[in-house]
Amino acid sequence: MKEIIDFIVLIVLYMVIFYKKWKSKGKYALFINTTMYLYLSGVLYFTLMPIITSLPFIFNHPYESMNLVPFIDVLSGSGDFMRQVGLNIIMTVPFGFLLPLTEGRKTTFLKVIIYSFLLSFSIEILQPLINGFRSSDITDLITNVFGGMIGYIIYLILKPLITKVLYKIKNN
Length: 172
Description:
Elements: H1 3-24, H2 27-47, H3 72-76, H4 81-103, H5 109-130, H6 138-170
């Protein structure tokens, strides 16, 4: 229920700031950028929300520092490691796929790695700050970046098909 406030803010931001800007660039830009916005809103929902209602309480719990031992769950045999790794990879595949569509020809493999890292790092740093029950883990950071890389590779494989479809969208 607390997430509703966050979604209202996201909708207002979209309508007031982004919709007009993207619409002025054409149907293609509106569609691709809105898709990325919806995707990132979903990522926020699963990783950080509720945000706004949590802000007054961010200093009411201890901040747990990031676990810096990669894949410690495997080494210690604890937790549901395969599920967590799979979900973290799946979560950022769309990011790696959509990023070149929002940026056009300016996107490189290195840029996808850097942006995936920054997205994941931001989430991992903010999670324990916003919510005392969440933790941050270097494994999540690694697997999120890997997911972004996979998404970009899928984009490169499908690029000829995507180019044809987007050409039709732009010219209709």
